[in-house]
Amino acid sequence: MINEWRVMMQKPSTSKTILTYLGTNTLVFKKEGATLMVDPHFSRPGLFRLFSGLRPDPVRVAEGLRLAEINQLDAVLLTHTHYDHIGALNDLVKAFPEAALGVHELEKGALYDPMENLSCGFGIDFRYSGKVDIELKDGDALDFGPLKIKVIHTPGHTIGGVCYFLDDTLF
Q1: Are 125 and 117 within 8 A, CB to CB?
Q2: What is the Cα–Cα distance from 138 to 73, expressed in whole angstroms?
Q3: Would you list the DSSP string of 36-48?
Q4: Are 153 and 137 in contact (CB under 8 A)?
Q5: 124-138, pLDDT tens digit by residue?
Q6: E strand or H helix at 100, and its extent?
Q7: pLDDT digit string, tens, across residues 42-67
């Protein structure tokens, strides 16, 4: 249900970048009119929904976007491609077709493969329906207007896992 979704915290950083947590994995950064989302899944449900199938919910995604006041989206970046970090990706592509998608070059194939993105473990055949706009590599510097991000390749959890450095924050 929609009431399970909530903006967990919103706080301005020292650089006037607004950070909003949307559930467990999703982060939204806003600065001077630019908006960036990281790991679009929005929220993890309770155990009952988890074990009964964790399907994408366009109503939940739309409500989350409305509550977080996301009217435009410049880019979506992924830390890795496990399903609990990409579950809302297809809904976001429909809502914001102009938003660029960035994922590490070693993770790109998992977006289209339910075995690699582990969605099959949730009883779901998730395949991303869009294209990858930015194939990330270690050391890449991304520029989304006032949002400047450095990519740091951190393999371990997945082969193409990354962290990002934005303003004074590593995540």
Answers
A1: no
A2: 24
A3: EEESTT-----HH
A4: yes
A5: 899 999 999 999 999
A6: strand 100-104
A7: 655 554 455 545 666 788 788 888 88
Pairwise CA distance, residues 81 & 39, whole Å: 8
Q: Which stretches within the chain are classed as H helix?
A: 47-51, 58-67, 83-86, 89-95
Residue 34: exposed, middle, or buried by beta-carbon count in 10 A (0-12, 13-18, 19+)? middle
CA dist., res. 152 & res. 161, Å (int): 9
| Strand order, beta sheet including 147-153 | 141-144, 147-153, 162-166, 169-170
> In this structure, what token pair is assigned to residue 38?
């990281």
Distance CA 44, CA 41 (A): 8
Average pLDDT across each block of 10 residues of the chain; the chain has 171 residues. List them in order. Answer: 39 65 80 93 56 66 84 96 91 94 98 95 90 98 96 96 91 86
CB 96 within 8 A of CB 73: yes
- Report how far apart the first and last C-alpha atoms of the chain are (Å, whole number): 29
Enter the tokens of residue 49.
């929904």
pTM to 2 decimal places: 0.85
- Tell me 109's DSSP state: G
